[in-house]
Amino acid sequence: MFLYHYFDKTTGAFTNLSDLPIDKANTILENIKTQKPNSQSATRHPEYMEQRYRNENKLKTLFMQKGGVVKRCAPHYMTIEHSPWLSTWHEDSGCIKISIDEFDTQTISFTYGDMFPVFNTLEICIL
To answer: Is 32 within the bounds of a domain?
Structure first.
């Protein structure tokens, strides 16, 4: 099994907005919106980073409760196997493919689907 990390070649692999203070992350995200309007990041809503930090904290808490070992403050995102859709998210897209055998599996968590829909479900009432 392989894990894939998609990134913009101009910024490099494993650079992460979540490693930054919120104000700096928001500034970079705003710059992306003007400099790379065709990238997925350019479509992010104004509260995206705040919501992302909350989701990542939820994910980290749940992961630790299940015995996961946290080695970073913020996660790096990868997919299991290749995702043609994610490979289109950047205007100058790059990809790294790494065997899962290269990782300590106690440091890896998975969500089924993207973290945002998993942690931001809407309550639906059926009458």
So the answer is: yes
pTM as predicted: 0.82
Q: How many domains does the chain have?
A: 1
Determine, yes or no, domain membership for 59. Answer: yes
Distance between CA 113 and CA 100 in Å, rounded?
19
Buried b (16+ CB within 10 A) or exposed e, 49-58: beebeebbee
Residue with token string 């913020």: 74
Cα 24–4–116 angle (5° rounding)? Answer: 50
pLDDT per position as a tens digit, 51-82: 999 999 988 999 999 999 999 989 999 999 99
DSSP 67: T
Is 124 part of any domain?
Answer: no
Q: What is the pLDDT of residues 74-121, one digit of tens each?
A: 999 999 999 998 888 888 899 999 999 999 999 998 877 677 766 665
Neighbours of 32 (CB within 10 A): 20
